[in-house]
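Translate sequence into structure tokens.
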Amino acid sequence: MRIVLQKEQLESEFKKKVELLSNQRILSCYQCGKCSAGCPIGYEMDCLPNKVIRMIQLGMIDEVMKAKTPWLCASCQTCTTRCPREIDVARVMDAIRIIAQVENRVVVKEIPILNQIFLKSVELTGRVYELGVIGAYNLLSLNPFKDIPLGIKMFLKGKLSIFPHIVRGSNKIFKRINRIQKKGIEQG
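Result follows.
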């Protein structure tokens, strides 16, 4: 089967956005597959990381935006450390998630909710307040009592605190992060 590529596919606006947000050169990837071979959750993905990169290269925007892979990526950096072309694949996945959220094309709805709760917890307390994150996520996912038995066991073993530990001065960091994010979205 012969595939003919058009210049428009290789220089799509989507590819340019991903490159700008991730600061990576997508066309540098030559599809060795090392990122996918090392991915600890590749077995759960609908298409492996190197295939997502290839779809971006080929201008397959809808296929990239429908893929669950960017949402399942744990940003563990295994792909990045294995890449012989030094492409930070995890940053590419981050860029795809950002674009999907801005364009309201989120595939796995639970992950952005969990991310927002997690970040808000860190913003408010300076670190993760596990009980607050679990409670807020369960409320927003309409399953408020789901983790109560596990929570009680963790509390009794001293693994879960009722009250958050507060780190002073952490709100300054988040104010700066919010300014940077706002500036990046406005430029993108």
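Note: The chain has two domains: 8-102, 110-175.
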